[in-house]
Design brief:
Elements (H helix, E strand, L loop, with lengths): L2 H17 L3 H13 L1 H27 L5 H28 L13 H13 L2 H8 L1 H41 L8 H26 L4
Helix pairs in contact: 1-7, 1-8, 2-3, 2-5, 2-7, 3-5, 3-7, 4-7, 4-8, 6-7
């Protein structure tokens, strides 16, 4: 995979996952209504602290087996299946997504926001599952691309999207805009759900090629 395709793959898969409504997304709306963009920034930092640590631990574990075909096939197939499931779910959710009433929340300190961000990231099972499957496949590609430096580069391509999205969501929540009520949000959610399905099929095909 060349540099352009590598970066495009990371960004498209990241955007597809970042836009999907999850625990961190909803707590960002709830707290962002009170403190604005600050909430998104602190939550992004908390998310990064856990995510980057997790990624590097995975990368160090995969470094010694990056060239073992059974490992690559297993991770690729698992990642492809999870992408397909997430993609189908995302398209389905975009069609019947219900707007939840904004939860009332009090003003809290930056420290408490950081703790909330750490909690809603680290205890989110879908976040862990994503990096164990889809993310692990990206880590393998990164290791093949440029070893551990490739993993760091992949993360840079990935993480800025989280910052832009969470800060934007928190800012619009403060302004009183109902992000999840916008028609464009549903449309974008559906489009990127299809993108996830595409990459899921691609992961499966590429992983199973050596067996065909």
């Amino acid at each position: 995979m060349d540099l352009t395709n590598f970066v495009a793959t990371v960004i498209l898969i990241t955007v597809s996952g970042a836009l999907a409504p999850g625990p961190l997304f909803f707590i960002t709306i709830s707290q962002g209504a009170k403190t604005g963009a600050k909430t998104g920034l602190v939550f992004s930092i908390a998310h990064t602290l856990i995510e980057f640590t997790l990624i590097m631990l995975f990368a160090l574990g995969l470094l010694s087996v990056v060239n073992q075909l059974p490992i690559k096939i297993t991770i690729g197939v698992a990642g492809g299946i999870v992408l397909l499931i997430f993609g189908i779910k995302q398209v389905r959710d975009s069609l019947k997504f219900k707007i939840k009433k904004k939860a009332k929340s009090r003003n809290i300190t930056t420290r408490n926001l950081l703790l909330l961000g750490l909690t809603f990231t680290g205890l989110n099972p879908f976040f862990i599952l994503w990096w164990l499957t889809v993310g692990a496949n990206l880590i393998l590609l990164s290791l093949e691309f440029a070893s551990l430096a490739g993993v760091v580069f992949m993360y840079i391509c990935h993480v800025w999207i989280d910052y832009v999205w969470l800060i934007s969501v928190a800012h619009f929540a403060k302004m009183g805009a109902n992000v999840i009520g916008f028609k464009w949000y549903r449309l974008v959610l559906a489009v990127f759900g299809v993108v996830l399905i595409y990459f899921g099929i691609s992961f499966l095909i590429n992983s199973l090629k050596p067996l065909i």
